[in-house]
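Record now logged for everyone:
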Amino acid sequence: MDDCRRVFAQMPCLLADISADTDHCQQQQDNTTTTPVIEGLEPYVRQIRPTFADIYSRFSGQQWQRFVDAWIDYADGNVASNAVIAENGRFGSLDEFWRIRRQTIGTLITTMIIMYTDADDDDDNDNNNLELPERDWLDPRMQQLLELTKDHMICSNDLFSFEKELLAISADMTTTIIDGTDRDRHALAQMSNIVAMTAIDRQCSISEAQLIIVELFDKLDGKIIELVRDWEQCNGGQPLSPGARQFIRGLLYFLGGMYRTNTNSDRYHRLYHT
C-alpha cells in the first residue's frame, strides 16, 4: 500500500514538472527537506518521463489537460483500489468494484495515446497529432463511447488474466476452484477482477461467472458498433467530423488489437509452464 501511494502520488508532480508548473511540485515537498520531489522520483515514474515529455511537446494545451486529468484519475483509482483491499480485505460490493475498476483500467489514457500516435495521414508535419475539439470530445455520443470502451476493456482484460491473477494469490489452484461451486472466497475477494467479483456477488461458480462476463462483453461489442454506425449515419445529432472519425477508427483498431493480444499472448497462456 505504501509503495502504491508513493508511486502514484508522484504522478501529478511529474506531469506538473513537465508542463513547467513548478508550483504544484513545490507544494508536494516534504516540509522537513528542501529537496524537490521531482529529484526523488521512483524508477517507474522516472522511466516514463521522456515519453510524457514528448507527448507534452506535441499536444495542445487542451489535449495536455485532458491527458493530465486522465492520469490523475487513473492514479487515484489505483490508490483507492489498494486502500480498499488493505483496509477491508475485499471490495464491499460489485458496484464499488465497477466504479474503481473503471478508473484503474486506464481507458482515457489510451485514448490520449491514440491522439498522440495517429497523426493526420495527409499532413506533412510529423509533429501534427490528431486533435479533437471540445465539440467532438464533449459530444454525448463520444462520452458514451468512452464509457462503453471502459467496460469492454475491463471484460476483455479480466477474463483473460483471471487464472494468472488467481495463481498469484492461490498457488494451489485446482479444477475445483476453476469449475466447481466450492470457491476459495478469501483468494477471490483479494482480486481486482470482474470475474472474481461477479462470482462472489452472484454466489455462482467461476465458470458461470466467466460466462456472465463473456455475455456482457458480447453485448458491449454490439453497443459500440451500433453507436458508431448510428453516428456515421448522422442519427440523433451532428455528423462525425473528420477528426472524430479518425479517432474512432483508431479506437476500434485498438480494441480489436487488444482482444487479439489477450487471446494469443504468452502472458496469459503459458501459466502452467512457469
Observations:
- Confidence is low (pLDDT under 50) at residues 21-37, 173-183.
